[in-house]
């Protein structure tokens, strides 16, 4: 009996080895299953990450904003007149074209008009050009202004009020972002300039400039 009792565990071995093999198999399966689950989690996380990237890209980078244009400063040259309140002068304006987009803004040649009390008194030319992505371009525009008839209170105050308007037409080219070429990414955008300037007739300077945003 003692011998049998000793043999019994020996006999159990082959069966337990079988069990061990299947246990090892299911353990491998478990690892594989865990790996697969982990991979799915990674894929899901990556999909979410990619969606966020695309959303940010669509909402921030691809959003096309209208550029802004205004007269930053202006100088008065060759001011002449005074007789019967008629004045001629040249206005040299420094314009700023601000482009907040992630692509270049290419604009066409256009006029910068100068008027006095609703009457056009001069015109300058904004040459075609480009404001780089997220940058501000400075351009100089010279306008010959003639036959301004000062009102009586302008004559008495010595301050001439002129308005300047321009309507830029152009396209935002999102195609040239980070050196990557997106041929379809062009969008028309206009920019309006509307400024009022006060010219001091005695000191011959632009003493105040106020532009709409
Ligand atoms: C202003 O210029 C016009 C021509 O553009 C000329 O006929 C006129 O005499 C000038 N007036 C003054 C005050 O210089
Ligand atoms: C000239 O006078 C009118 C009213 O008399 C006033 O509305 C206008 O603002 C004045 N212009 C200037 C430049 O002071
Ligand atoms: C400037 O003047 C020209 C001709 O007088 C006109 O066609 C154009 O619309 C004017 N531009 C603006 C912005 O008022």
From TrEMBL:
The chain crosses the membrane at residues 40-62. Residues 95-184 form the Late embryogenesis abundant protein LEA-2 subgroup domain. InterPro entries: Lea14-like_2, LEA_2. Keywords: Membrane, Transmembrane, Transmembrane helix. This is Late embryogenesis abundant protein LEA-2 subgroup domain-containing protein. It comes from Rhododendron griersonianum.
């Amino acid at each position: 009996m003692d011998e049998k009792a000793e043999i019994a565990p020996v006999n159990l071995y082959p069966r337990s080895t079988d069990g061990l093999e299947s246990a090892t198999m299911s353990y491998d399966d478990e690892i594989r299953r865990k790996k697969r689950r982990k991979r799915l989690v990674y894929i899901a996380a990556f999909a979410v990450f990619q969606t966020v990237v695309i959303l940010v890209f669509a909402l921030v980078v691809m959003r096309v904003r209208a550029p802004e244009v205004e007269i930053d400063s202006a100088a008065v040259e060759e001011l002449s007149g005074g007789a019967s309140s008629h004045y001629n002068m040249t206005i040299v304006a420094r314009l700023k074209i601000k482009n907040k987009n992630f692509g270049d803004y290419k604009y066409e040649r256009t006029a910068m008009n100068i008027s006095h009390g609703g009457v056009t008194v001069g015109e300058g030319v904004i040459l075609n050009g480009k404001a780089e992505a997220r940058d501000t371009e400075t351009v100089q525009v010279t306008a010959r202004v003639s036959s301004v008839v000062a009102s009586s209170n302008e004559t008495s105050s010595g301050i001439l009020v002129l308005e300047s308007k321009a309507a830029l037409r152009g396209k935002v080219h999102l195609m040239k972002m980070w050196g990557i070429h997106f041929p379809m990414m062009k969008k028309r955008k206009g920019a309006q300039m509307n400024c009022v300037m006060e010219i001091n007739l005695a000191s011959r300077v632009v003493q105040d400039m106020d532009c709409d945003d």
